[in-house]
Amino acid sequence: MNPENSNPSGGQFSLPQLERIDQQHIWHPYSQVAEEGGPALPIVERAEGVHLEFASGERVIDGMSSWWCMLHGYNHPVLNQAAKDQIDKMAHVMFGGLSHQPAIELAQLLVELTPDGLDTVFFADSGSVSVEVAIKMALQYWHSQGRPEKQRLLTIKNGYHGDTFGAMATCDPVNGMHHLFSGNLPKHHFLEAPPAGLDTAPCPDYLAQVRTFIESHHHEIAAFILEPIVQGAGGMRFYSPAYLKAFKTLCEEFDVLLIADEIATGFGRTGKLFACEHAGISPDILCLGKALSGGYMTLAATLCTANVANGICQGEAGVFMHGPTFMANPLACATALASTRLLIGQDWQSKIRFIEEQLQLGLAPLKDAPGVADVRVMGAIGVVEMKEAVDKESLQKALIGRGVWLRPFGKLVYTMPPFISSENDLRALCKAMVETLSEV
After folding, report:
1. Cβ distance 376 to 363 under 8 Å?
2. Mean pLDDT over residues 230-240, rounded?
3. Alpha helices in 297-421, H assignment, sequence order
């Protein structure tokens, strides 16, 4: 232990001490190990509503909803109370051979809310793990059906499905974040992503190419995995629901399972409760995460049809071969139940339409700005795509100076604000984006 960082009395560390310890010992997501004496990261001391309060005194609007999960804002009294009530009963109990009320009630609610036919719920620890579970379900299903040759996945480029190994193998192999591991990952099939644009008419040539590929390879394809309508961390692309509907039809025709990754799009973010609803389709397997618990703690779920579940259990193993230690954690399930009930118990559709209108209005000045390639909005998602990659650190510093927290990546500066954001919050958020990007 570094004596400069020790605090044997158990008292509170000073801000300089906290910054120094953070730089010396903590490795943050997608970042280099910090250099001692370099710029310190903002340290969040408290969060309330849409605001983060830094230990250094700044108060900023969180335009990221803490990586898209904090639907109802921070420190929400309903979610706080749900967590407090549950922790007095039990924080955790193993799910192997046991069950509990929060998981049972949450599973029932998810079955009621998700697209028709998704009747079985498998709880997992995180979004990436829910994708691993989905992949495992698809592979074990076909093995149980006596067709083990169906062991490869089909997906579209510009996708992102998580950072664990199975999930990484389905992310974009060139433009994604995991190309360094390409030699270690299973090899799957990648199609070109559908042409961008929510309202663009489907391209017959593109759909013909997809059909030809699936027709030629369906004997080895276990499942087609994709993010419906909105591709998130792979590029914040929007595509027409007509393509999703066509993909579903082809999967049914050629005996391929469809996996919908709604980790980022679920729970109203796109203007529908689930993005699959834009195309009126139901997948064979559905992945949920992020906003499932209202951003309070890690929790995910993988839902599947009775056909998939029964098909797996009728096979050689007789059971689905997966079981996380913290599966269906009661504290997380109780909070997720409260968050989901809070969402559907209000006119959330009007809230999303209001956010969409404010983002369209507020970001419109950037459409013709120098250096801007595109501005697009869908539901509670606002994206500004620049012509060149941005300097993330300097851009974040400028945004913080204007009272806003965002985390750009590559050429993209985007926002997914909490659903409780007021008109003033959204105006301030858009104004900071416009002013900062106009200076770039």
Report:
1. no
2. 96
3. 306-313, 330-344, 348-363, 392-401
The secondary structure of residue 197, as a DSSP letter, is B
Q: What is the pLDDT of residues 77-116, one digit of tens each?
A: 999 999 999 999 999 999 999 999 999 999 999 999 999 9
Mention every residue, 6+ apart, whose C-beta is less than 8 A from residue 119.
111, 303, 305, 306, 309
pLDDT at position 288 is 98
Indicate the length of the chain as a whole number. Answer: 440
Per-residue pLDDT for 264 more than 50? yes
Strand partners, 386: 372
Which residues, 6 or more positions from 82, have their beta carbon under 8 angstroms from its beta carbon? Answer: 334, 335, 337, 338, 339
User: What count of other Cβ atoms lies within 10 Å of the Cβ of residue 149?
Assistant: 12
Residue 249 in 3-state DSSP?
A: helix
Cα(304)–Cα(259) distance, integer angstroms: 9
> Three-class SS of residue 70?
coil
Contact between 154 and 224 under an 8 Å Cβ cutoff? The reply is: yes
Catalytic residue ranges: 30, 160, 261, 290
Q: Which two tokens stand for residue 387?
A: 């012509």
Please give the domain boundaries of the chain with CATH numbers for all domains.
15-75+348-438 (3.90.1150.10), 78-345 (3.40.640.10)
What is the distance between the alpha carbons of residues 20 and 85, in angstroms, rounded to a whole number? 37
The mean pLDDT value of the chain amounts to 95
Q: Which residues contact 215 (CB under 8 A, 6 or more apart)?
A: 254
DSSP per-residue letters across 106-147: HHHHHHHHSSTTEEEEEEESSHHHHHHHHHHHHHHHHHHTT-
User: What does the block give as tokens for 282?
Assistant: 């139901």
Q: How many CB atoms lie within 10 A of CB 187?
A: 10
* Residues flagged as binding site for pyridoxal 5'-phosphate: 127-128, 261, 324-325
Residues 56, 58, 59, 63, Cα dihedral to 10°: -100
d(CA 91, CA 77): 19
Q: What is the mean pLDDT of residues 314-330?
A: 94
Q: Which residue ranges are tagged as binding site?
A: 67, 127-128, 160, 261, 290, 323-325, 407
